[in-house]
Amino acid sequence: MAKTGSISWRAAGESIFEKAGKIKRTHRIMILVATILLFGGAFYALDYAPKSEEITMAEENVERLAQQLKTTKIRAKSIEKIRARHAEVRKQFHEALKLLPDKREIPDLLKSISQQGLDAKLEFRLFSPQPEKSRAFYMEIPVSIEVRGEYRNVVDFFDRVGRMDRIVNILNISMKPDKPLSTQLLTRCMAITYRFKSEEDVKKEQQSKKKKRK
């Protein structure tokens, strides 16, 4: 029986090859191409396509991480700039503190302004501090001034005030001869100096606003 089975399979194989030999060359090529496409499609569906999707996802993740890294670097640079700017502002603030006195120093500052005029050989006719004016974070202190003296002495006075350690601005300057044909001038101006607001100033302003609302 085994021998008969062997002969049967052999005969079947010879029959297949005999039939294949009778197929035209064109048909054989088409069968070969179809077979290649069949195995190629199976390979794509079972092996290549899943891996291709994994590769695409991996590339997208790499691109996303690269973008996140770029954004993080930009933010880090921005933070460094903000810190540097903050340090610069703090430095400028402390420098400004040196130029703006507190409330306790104002009497001495006004005396110093008056002394600059005397040192410039001017005669004071008026030196009258006016009511303070509130600004954002400081108080403005205007002083009405009227002096008598020659032009060069007035210029010397203004120069001395401008070189003081504290900020003092001279505004609204007017000059006229003290007498006809006299070299002596009567000079009027407004000297404005500044001081930082104290906690007491802030509280008073808040109370004043509350009263106005009522």
Task: Give a brief rundown of this model.
With 214 residues, the protein is of the alpha+beta class. The protein has helices spanning 2-22, 25-99, 106-119, 151-162, 199-213, and strands spanning 123-129, 133-134, 138-149, 168-177, 185-196.
Written account of the structure:
With 214 residues, this protein is α+β, with helices and mostly antiparallel strands. It has two domains: 1-99; 103-205, Ribosomal protein S6/Translation elongation factor EF1B (Alpha-Beta Plaits, 2-Layer Sandwich), CATH 3.30.70. It has helices spanning 2-22, 25-99, 106-119, 151-162, 199-213, and strands spanning 123-129, 133-134, 138-149, 168-177, 185-196. Strands 1, 2, 3, 4 and 5 form a five-stranded antiparallel sheet that branches. A hairpin with a 7-residue loop joins strand 4 and strand 5. The protein is elongated.
